[in-house]
Amino acid sequence: MSEEKAIISEYEERKEKLIRLQERNIESYPSSSERSHLVGDVLGEFDEMEAQETVVVLCGRLRSKRVHGNLSFADIEDESGRMQIAISKKEVGENYKPFAKLVDASDFVQITGKVFTTKAGQQTVMVSEWKLLTKTLRGMPVEHFGLKDEDEKFRKRYVDMVLNPELRDLFKRRAKFWRVMRNFMQERDFFEVETPSIEVTTGGAEARPFASHHNDFDMDIYMRISIGELWQKRLMAAGFEKTFEIGRAFRNEGSSPNHLQEFTNMEFYWAYADYKKGMEFTKELYRYIAKEVYGKTDFETRGLKFDLADKWKEIDYVDEVLKQTDVNVIEATRDEMIARLDELGVKYEGDNRERLTDSLWKYCRKNIGGPAFLINHPTFIAPLSKRSVDNPDQVEKFQIIIGGAEVGNGYSELNDPLDQRARFEEQEKLLKAGDDEAMMPDWEFVEMLEYGMPPTCGFGVGERLFAFLEDKTLREVTLFPLMKPKGDNIDEISD
């Protein structure tokens, strides 16, 4: 029998059992339950409970079921753990047969009973009462085999997490990662804010946005590509001196192990601080997260080892690209960049200086394990960064490099309205020339700068950092990554 036919056969068999349960007036989908303990609590206090003959009420999914005549064994599992239960005809009487015949592994049940230890030394609950909570029509795959297809694992996260509890643990660490970051910021007097997710212009990054239309205002709108950069800088002008936001960003770009179209980021803005202070602050932040979430500072990701407790090297953007590619990105012509990229076999999108320079850097960064700060970026690729006093062709910007990728981006914010206007005009030319990743000019933001914004350091970091600390892809650390609809599957048997 093929796998698909076996699934259909099991589905029909379980539907028949559901009908037989209904004929016996056994409710298959009740709304209430009366749990008294978690499985983990029972296992943790088992000896005491056994001595005191404590009655427990457990609720959970049956992970296996074994019928031996008038005695059945099963494993019940909740979020806290798994343990064995025993049901005998002697204990439950006429309610034994429905359990033995009509209840399946994967069903959710409530059981009441006393704990005891079997002759084989197995910690067990002897059931005196049972109640069906959910009758399942599809059984979980056998744990040993699980879900082998990667697409199915993402599509059926709910199954994969049952089969792999360590995956649930990963997402608990993810929640702790953001909780620790939030605590770090709040303990240092940063004020948490919420800024718009829908914008008229997408500021704060160079990326292709998701576009829509606002029917009431009859205008085009965009999902934000940064976590309120231009809004938080308005708050600096308004008199706030330390703000941060944790939220979702959206970029209509390609997918890769390090890129998704929807992701969580944190951005902070700190008045009267420059990029040098930002570098020290973020180094402290990363070390704090590592210690609080993982209890260590040394990691290995993408085949590269790094220790956040080490000294963080400072790498000059222009010098590093020159060293690895023999191209000086400030002096080289567009044609020279293209020729070198072709020689290196690097694929690139767009053919203006901004995109070509970025492509050369991306070729270089994969060789840097870190932790390191990338500094002294060319001015033309950082339209919101303040120019370096020593070299106006470069800016006061830093990116954190770990495992061959950028996992944090900050700079001394540009607060000169005339310089900002000129750079937005350059971005506008790129947009009109067809570069849909160029930054949309926000002229109202320029007007704000004309009212005055104090010297400010801004910084952003996202779940790419978490992915790298876990040595996973962004897709793997996303609860429900976007999937293309699958139209040809066994859902048809539900019709």
Helix content: 25-40%
Q: In percent, how much strand structure appears in the residues?
A: 15-25%
Poorly predicted segments: 489-495
Number of strand elements: 18
CATH A-level architecture of the largest domain: 2-Layer Sandwich
Distance between the termini: 22 Å
Rg, alpha carbons = 29 Å
- At CATH level 3, the topology of the largest domain is BirA Bifunctional Protein, domain 2
CATH class category label of the largest domain: Alpha Beta
Quaternary structure type: single chain
Please summarize the sheet with the most strands.
Answer: 8 strands, mixed
Tally the helices: what do you get? 16
> Strand pairing plus helix content: what structural class?
alpha+beta
| Neighbour order of strands in the largest sheet | 6-10-11-18-17-16-15-14
Please describe the structure with a list of short key phrases separated by commas or semicolons:
OB fold (Dihydrolipoamide Acetyltransferase, E2P); 495 residues; eight-stranded mixed β-sheet; 2 domains; alpha+beta; BirA Bifunctional Protein, domain 2; disordered C terminus
